[in-house]
Amino acid sequence: MKIAIIGSHGVGKTTLCYDVAALLKKQGKNVDIVKEVVRSCPLPVNKKTTKEAQMWILHTQIAKEIESQGSSDVVLCDRSVLDNYAYLVHKEGRDAALDDLVENWMKTYDFIFKIPISERPRGDNFRDTDQEWQMSIDSLIDELVREHGIDAVRLSDSKEQWAREIMDIISTRKLV
Question: What is the pLDDT of residue 165?
Answer without folding.
Answer: 97
